[in-house]
Amino acid sequence: MKQRKVPLRKCVACQEMMPKKQLIRIVKTPEDEILIDLTGKKAGRGAYLCGKDACFKLARKNKALDRALKHHVDPEIHDQLARDFAAAEEEFLAAQGSADDE
């Protein structure tokens, strides 16, 4: 049987190429709403981050999300994303653990 190609994406903070399933997607919807997309299927422009808190902080520091999303990300939105990221990180890591078991 032929091997399926694994899609790779680059973390906007650390610039490391990883399989798409190991990254968390942040999306800017057509309504200019910025949120975390764990499904990876929401419509809009996406940016990928490692599941690490350090990468999120680095992306905020060097405005990597602003560049990747081609939209200014307000400090309030960064704060909201930080809270969502902490919750999503736990859910993401739990999903990673269950996927590794299979």
Plain-language structure description:
This is RNase P modulator RnpM. InterPro entries: YlxR, YlxR-like_sf, YlxR_dom. There is one protein chain. A hairpin with a 6-residue loop joins strand 1 and strand 2. The two termini are 19 Å apart. With 102 residues, the protein is α+β, with helices and mostly antiparallel strands. The protein is built from three helices and five strands, in the order E-E-E-E-E-H-H-H. 41% of the residues lie in helices and 22% in strands. 21% of the residues are buried.
Assembly state here?
A: single chain
Secondary-structure content class: alpha+beta
Which term fits the overall shape? globular
Helical residue percent? 40-55%
What characterizes the major β-sheet?
A: 3 strands, antiparallel
Distance between the termini: 19 Å
SSE pattern? EEEEEHHH
How much β-strand is present in the residues? 15-25%
Protein name: RNase P modulator RnpM
InterPro entries: YlxR, YlxR-like_sf, YlxR_dom
Organism: Paenibacillus terreus
Domain YlxR: 9-82
Give me some keywords for this one.
two-stranded antiparallel sheet; alpha+beta; 5 strands; three-stranded antiparallel sheet; globular; 3 helices; 102 residues
Please summarize what this structure is.
With 102 residues, this protein is α+β, with helices and mostly antiparallel strands. It contains three helices and five strands; from the N terminus they run βββββααα.
